[in-house]
Amino acid sequence: MNKIYLAVLVTLLSVGLGASASYAGGFMTFRSSDLIGVPVKNPQGRFLGLVNEIMIGSDGQAFAIVNHGDEDLYGPGGVNTPVPIAALRISETKPGKEQIVLNTDTEHLDFAPYLDPTMNNDRQYEANIDTYFGLQPSWTAEGSCPK
Asked: Structurally, how many domains does the chain consist of?
């Protein structure tokens, strides 16, 4: 379990997030556990979904798993969508009150690649997620996250 937390910490540090909700070295740092359950909104403040968990890809890239969706469209429980951490703007309005903004709308998120456990080690699947959210795949020279 400690290895998982260490992996999350190392990955989050590589994309500008870190171990605690504090201001250090010019950027905010957050615990991954502080982000779980936080609402994700678009820049206009419209609710998109909730962070369900944080996952780390095989190349070290972090993803926030956002649970969203209409019950009529997805059934009870909605759908989980992996969103690259680099696609999110995370801030804190006051201690313990994190805010997460994703520059998209509900319709765009509804058509995003959903979490598919059978694709765990598939780079094309990760690339599809990255490009869907406007990022280069993390293993390329222009990628969103160093390897």
From this structure: 1
| Consecutive 10-residue averages of pLDDT for the chain (147 residues) | 40 40 57 90 94 85 90 75 94 79 93 88 86 86 49
Give the Cα separation of 23 and 41 in Å (integer): 22
Residue 39 lies in a domain: yes
The residue segments making up the domain with residue 91 are 33-132
Dump the DSSP string for 16-63: T--SSSEEETTEEE--HHHHTT-EEE-TT--EEEEEEEEEE-TTS-EE
Contact between 60 and 10 (Cβ < 8 Å): yes
Specify the 3-state DSSP secondary structure of 79: strand
On whether residue 111 sits in a domain, the answer given is: yes
> Is the pTM of the predicted complex or chain greater than 0.85?
no
